[in-house]
Specification:
Layout (H helix, E strand, L loop, with lengths): L8 H7 L5 H4 L5 H5 L8 E8 L9 H9 L7 E7 L5 E8 L5 H10 L2 H6 L2 H25 L19 H7 L10 E7 L18 H11 L7 E6 L10 H16 L2 E7 L10 E12 L2 E12 L7 E5 L3 E11 L7 E7 L11 E6 L3 E7 L15 E7 L6
C-alpha cells in the first residue's frame, strides 16, 4: 500500500514547534477518519519511541519510520512515547483510511459523471488519508522538537542512565490485545534496560536467564507479535559488547512473552508486507499415543512467504515459523506449507522442518529435524505427526 513521505520533515518540525501533542490533536477531524474503519484490518502497527535517544533537530529516524512503514487499508496505527521512568504516553492512534482495490473499483462502477465532477467518495477518502498522514507526522515531529542536544546523547557502558523499558511495556500491555489485530511493533530505542527492578547493564547473570526471570516478574501477552527494533548505537557505540548482551536479553524476553524479535539494528528495515493474507488452524501434534493440542497462524505476503507466522504447542511453547505457503496448486484446492522453526524451544530446534499438505480446510504432515537419520532415544525416527483444520475464529 502507500508510504508516507517525509520530504518536508524540517518544515513540519518548525511549523509545529510551538504546538504541544494535546493541542495538535485538535487539528484533526478524527471522527471523519474513524468512519472508514468500522471493519478493522487484521493487523495493527504500534510505534514506540524512546524519548531519551531522540537528538534535537534530527529527523533521520523519523524519515525511516515514515518511508519504510506501509499500511494496509484500515490498519490501526499508534505512536507511543516511552519515558525512562516506565511511563508510556500515547500521542497518536488512528486507522489508516484507505479502501481496498475491490472497494475502489466498486465505487467507480456505481458513481456517475455528476459524482465525479462534484465530489466522489474517493475524494473524501483521499482527504481523510491526508489528515491521517498529517497527524502521523505531527506526532513524530513532537519528539524532534523536544530532543536532547547531540553532545548529551553519547554514553559509555559505565555511564548508562536508568531506563525502565520492560516496565513501560508491562504497564501498557492492553495495547497489544489481539482484538486490536495482530501486532507489528516498531521500537526506536537503544534498548538499554537499567532499572531498580531489572538491571541488565549491571547484572552478571546470563542475559537469557535474566530475561526468563524478567518475563516471570513482568509477564506480557504480546499475542504473537513481530518486533522491529532500530536505533542501536544511538547512544552507546554500536560496537560495544553491551549491545550484544542486550540483544540476547530482549530476544529471550520477547519470545517468552509471545513475540519474535525480527530485527535489532541501527536502521529500520521492513519486508514487503503491505498486502498479506492470514489464516488460522487448530489441531494436534502426535507422537505415538501422545497428543498435544496445537494451533497454527499463517501470514503470507504477496509472494507466499511466511512472516509473523507461529506454531503453538500446548505444554511446549510458541515457535515462530518461516518458509512458504501455497494454495491452488495446479488449479486445485490443494495447499502446502514448507517451513522451518526460527528458534529453539525444547525439545524442538531452530531449523526443524514443518512439512504439511492438504486442502484449503484441512492439512496434515510432519515436524522433524533437517536430517532424516536423527532418532529418538528408543531408536525410532525423530518425527512428529501434525494435523490441522482451518478455524479462522481462533484467537491467535
Amino acid at each position: 500500500m502507500r508510504q508516507i513521505s517525509f520530504r518536508y520533515a524540517a518544515v513540519a518540525a518548525c511549523l509545529f514547534a510551538s504546538v504541544d501533542a494535546t493541542a495538535q490533536s485538535s487539528f484533526l477531524n478524527t471522527s471523519n477518519i474513524e468512519a472508514y474503519c468500522q471493519n478493522a484490518a487484521p493487523r495493527q502497527t504500534v510505534v514506540l519511541i524512546d524519548e531519551t535517544i531522540v537528538p534535537a533537530g534530527n529527523d533521520q529516524w523519523a524519515r525511516q519510520i515514515l518511508n519504510k512503514l506501509q499500511f494496509v487499508p484500515r490498519e490501526r496505527v499508534q505512536v507511543v512515547k516511552l519515558k525512562p521512568d516506565g511511563a508510556a504516553e500515547q500521542l497518536f492512534s488512528l486507522c489508516y483510511p484507505q479502501l481496498t482495490a475491490a472497494e475502489e473499483t466498486d465505487i467507480r462502477r456505481r458513481e456517475g459523471v455528476g459524482d465525479r465532477l462534484f465530489g466522489s467518495k474517493l475524494d473524501d477518502v483521499k482527504k481523510a488519508r491526508e489528515q491521517f498522514e498529517r497527524g502521523f507526522r505531527i506526532a513524530l515531529s513532537s519528539f524532534i522538537q523536544a530532543g536532547k542536544p547531540p553532545e548529551r546523547m553519547r554514553i559509555s557502558a559505565s555511564s548508562v542512565p536508568e531506563k525502565s523499558l520492560v516496565e513501560s511495556l508491562f504497564y501498557d500491555e492492553k495495547r497489544f490485545a489481539i482484538e486490536n489485530g495482530v501486532s507489528r511493533v516498531v521500537i526506536f530505542s537503544d534498548m538499554l534496560q537499567r532499572s531498580s527492578s531489572i538491571d541488565v547493564v549491571g547484572s552478571q547473570m546470563d542475559p537469557a536467564r535474566l530475561a526468563l526471570d524478567a518475563a516471570r516478574r513482568f509477564q506480557i501477552r504480546f499475542n504473537l507479535a513481530e518486533v522491529h527494533v532500530f536505533g542501536i548505537g544511538s547512544s552507546l557505540p554500536a560496537s560495544d559488547p553491551l549491545n550484544r548482551k542486550m540483544e540476547a536479553f530482549w530476544r529471550s524476553y520477547f519470545l517468552k512473552n509471545g513475540a519474535f524479535l525480527e530485527q535489532y539494528s541501527a536502521n529500520l528495515s521492513m519486508g514487503e508486507t503491505d498486502s498479506f493474507e492470514i489464516s488460522r488452524w487448530r489441531g494436534a501434534l502426535i507422537l505415538r499415543d501422545r497428543h498435544l493440542e496445537a494451533s497454527l497462524r499463517v501470514m503470507t505476503n504477496k509472494g507466499g512467504a511466511l512472516f509473523n507466522s507461529w506454531l503453538v504447542i500446548a505444554g511446549v511453547g510458541v515457535l515462530p515459523v518461516s518458509g512458504k505457503f501455497r494454495c491452488g496448486i495446479d488449479g486445485t484446492n490443494q495447499c502446502e506449507i514448507d517451513g522451518e522453526l526460527r528458534t529453539n524451544v525444547d525439545p524442538f530446534k531452530e531449523g526443524d522442518k514443518l512439512q504439511i499438505r492438504g486442502s484449503s480446510q484441512e492439512i496434515k504432515g510432519k515436524l522433524k529435524p533437517p536430517r532424516d537419520d536423527e532418532v529418538f532415544p528408543d531408536g525410532s525416527p525423530a518425527v512428529y505427526e501434525i494435523g490441522f483444520k482451518r478455524d479462522d475464529a481462533l484467537k491467535l
